[in-house]
């Protein structure tokens, strides 16, 4: 096999970065839709919009969330949302 063929073969074997990210996002959307169907949550089109922020959190806190497995950012968001809704309830009672 010539050197040109080896290079061409190597290029074809590598996954395209954009395609891999698209596949991962597609799988995540499918998993989220399954979870939403089970819990009766709103469809994925009605989910709240997200904003990318930079947040400084203690190392121990991040390590603890990461130790529970993938999706630690989603778990943090759910906990913060629960705290927010509890705060709204308390503010409404006063």
Describe the structure.
This protein is mostly helical. It has two domains: 7-47, no CATH class; 50-94. It is 69% helix and 0% strand. It has four helices and no strands. It is elongated, with a radius of gyration of 21 Å. The mean pLDDT is 76.
Low-confidence stretches: none
* Element order: H for helix, E for strand: HHHH
SSE-based structural type: mainly alpha
What is the count of structural domains? 2
- End-to-end Cα distance, whole Å, is 79 Å
How big a fraction of the residues is strand?
Answer: under 5%
Number of helical elements = 4
> What overall geometry do the principal axes of the alpha carbons give?
elongated
How many E strands? 0
**CA-atom Rg in angstroms:** 21 Å
Residue-averaged pLDDT: 76
Biggest beta sheet summary: none
- What is the helical fraction, as a range of percent? 55-70%
């Amino acid at each position: 096999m010539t050197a040109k063929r080896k290079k061409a073969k190597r290029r074809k074997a590598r996954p395209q970065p954009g395609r891999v990210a698209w596949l991962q996002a597609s799988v995540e959307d499918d998993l989220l839709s399954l979870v939403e169907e089970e819990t009766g949550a709103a469809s994925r089109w009605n989910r709240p919009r997200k904003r990318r922020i930079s947040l400084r959190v203690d190392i121990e806190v991040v390590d603890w969330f990461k130790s529970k497995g993938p999706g630690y950012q989603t778990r943090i968001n759910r906990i913060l949302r629960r705290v927010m809704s509890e705060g709204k309830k308390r503010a409404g009672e006063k």
